[in-house]
Design goal:
Helices cover 7% and strands 55% of the residues. Strand 10 and strand 11 form a beta hairpin. The protein is globular, with a radius of gyration of 18 Å.
Length: 231
């Protein structure tokens, strides 16, 4: 349905108590945890060569930034995915995703830098929440179990009109590099209802993945508790 490349990617990950994240999720989703901790990530990047149903999108290259967490269906053996608290995007045509509950917001975003250092800035239109961050890329390292857990997700969930939607996403494994966060000011997490992070983040960068393929959103059949009637 949609094809793109993700480039100039940064990941800033914070651990959270699971209950603080679970309280912000819709019915049908459980916060996923790694060694007992939930995680929330701020991920700025650039969308390139975007096409919908094979038709190139006008202004095909633009920045995007999301704040996300990691979830699974209420069934603990259900497929893992991501839940977006917000997606800031510089191309207003992407706001079409609102029809499936994808929380897009039109924003002024910039990505600048060359060599190992990149600076990302953004502010939602109408003087909304904002951020700025600067990262310095370090050496490539073999991905740890946590690195893979945070980045190897093949679906995104959204919620609208009482329906939980599942959008499949396919791409190669992220080529990750360790990174140093040299500057960060943001209130996107707070605007999403999250308390301020209480620890230093884990930071990655990546040159990107291409192609990234998005399937059509489909409604999720969420199981309900079985009711046993007594005679």
């Amino acid at each position: 349905m949609l094809r793109a490349c993700w480039t100039h990617q940064a990941f800033v990950h914070w651990p959270y108590p699971p209950g603080e994240v679970q309280s912000l999720l819709p019915s049908g989703l459980l916060v996923d945890t790694f060694q007992g901790r939930a995680w929330v990530s701020l991920t700025p990047f650039v969308m390139e060569s975007v096409s919908v149903l094979g038709v190139p999108l006008p202004h095909r290259t633009f920045p995007e930034t999301n704040v996300r967490t990691y979830v699974r269906l209420t069934d603990r053996d259900g497929p893992r995915g991501v839940w977006f608290f917000t997606l800031e995007v510089a191309n207003p045509l992407m706001l079409a995703g609102l029809s499936f509950g994808v929380p897009y917001h039109w924003a002024d975003l910039r990505v600048r830098g060359a060599g190992p250092e990149h600076r990302y800035t953004g502010r939602r239109r109408a003087n909304g929440p904002s951020y700025r961050l600067t990262v310095r890329t370090g050496p490539a390292l073999p991905a740890t179990d946590l690195d893979a857990w945070l980045t190897d997700r093949s679906r995104a969930y959204s919620y609208r009109a009482g329906i939980l939607w599942n959008t499949p996403v396919q791409h190669e494994a992220w080529p990750l590099r360790r990174a140093t966060l040299t500057d960060l000011q943001e209130n996107l997490t707070r605007s999403a209802g999250l308390p301020p992070p209480s620890s230093e983040p884990l930071t990655h960068t990546s040159p990107g993945v291409c192609p990234v393929l998005f399937g059509p959103p489909r409604p999720v059949a969420v199981g309900r508790p079985r009711v046993v009637l007594k005679r």
